[in-house]
Amino acid sequence: MDQSELSPARRRTFLTVMLAGIGAAVGAMFGWPVLRYLSPRSGADADARVRVPRDKVPVGGAHFFEFRGRPTVLLQMRPGEFTALTAVCTHLGCIVKWQQNKGEFLCPCHGGRFSATGEVLGGPPPAPLQNFPVVLDGDQLVIG
């Protein structure tokens, strides 16, 4: 028997080890994003507050910013009345767009519509946009 030849049992062991290694790598590659998606976010920034200069939000307009790691929008529909809402559609998580001429939000993905207070006006969204408290502190708006 030639020394360079491997027995069928050794070949089978080698292939089993290689396939197990490749399977583990592929499993980790697909499993890690799923695990990150299903695991809760860190609560370290749960009490975080954001300050936005009052003049950044025009009357009838919107100012988009990030709050607690998510897109958020600040509205001033009437002078001195501010509303902070999440800018993430409750249907599939797309970012809503403010339509100033209509005074409502539109989700560009599937046509969901929300009022300036976050209520669902039409389309597939199952729930309203989340509201955040807004406090006026001098010339700053404090969200959170």
UniProtKB/TrEMBL annotation:
Q: Which residues form the Rieske domain?
A: 49-143
Which keywords are on file for this protein?
A: 2Fe-2S, Disulfide bond, Iron, Iron-sulfur, Membrane, Metal-binding, Transmembrane, Transmembrane helix
Q: Which residues cross the membrane?
A: 12-32
Q: Which is an annotated GO molecular function term of this record?
A: metal ion binding
Q: Which residues form a coiled coil?
A: none
Cofactor(s) listed: [2Fe-2S] cluster
What Gene Ontology cellular-component terms does the record carry?
A: membrane
Entries under InterPro entries matching the protein? Rieske_2Fe-2S (IPR017941), Rieske_2Fe-2S_sf (IPR036922), Rieske_Fe-S_prot (IPR014349), Rieske_Fe-S_prot_C (IPR005805), TAT_signal (IPR006311)
* PROSITE patterns membership: RIESKE, TAT
Superkingdom of the source?
Bacteria
Any idea what this protein is called?
A: Cytochrome b6-f complex iron-sulfur subunit
The protein's organism comes out as: Geothermobacter ehrlichii
Top-level taxonomy: Bacteria, Pseudomonadati, Thermodesulfobacteriota, Desulfuromonadia, Desulfuromonadales
